[in-house]
Give the backbone structure.
Amino acid sequence: MHFRSQRKLQGEVSLADTLETAGEGGSLSLMDVIAVDDTMLEDLDTRDACRRVRRCVDACLDDRERRIIICRYGLDDHPPQTQREIAARCGISRSYVSRIEKRALEKLAAAMDGWRPG
C-alpha cells in the first residue's frame, strides 16, 4: 500500500525541492528560480476603482457631461477623443468642451472623495 501511494506522488514536485547545491552549503530550489508576477490584488483594486468611477459618471453627471467624459476618456469601449473631435461632433467650441470636462471632473472628484466602501 505504501508503494502505491508513493507511486501516485512520483510525478509531483515541490517548490522547496533542491535543484542543485552551491559550493558553501547553499542550495537552489525551484522557488528561487520561478519568478511570479502576482498582480492579482492590484488588478482587483483597479477593477473596483473602474466600477466606482463608472457608477459616479452615471449618477453624478448630466447627459452632456457624461457624453463628454465618455468620449474624452474612452469609456464604454470607445477610443479616447480629443477636445477638438468632441467639439466638432457635438457642434460646440473646443473651449466649451474644456469647461464642461473640467466641471464634470470636479463633480467626479467630489463624489469619489465622499465614497466609502460598504
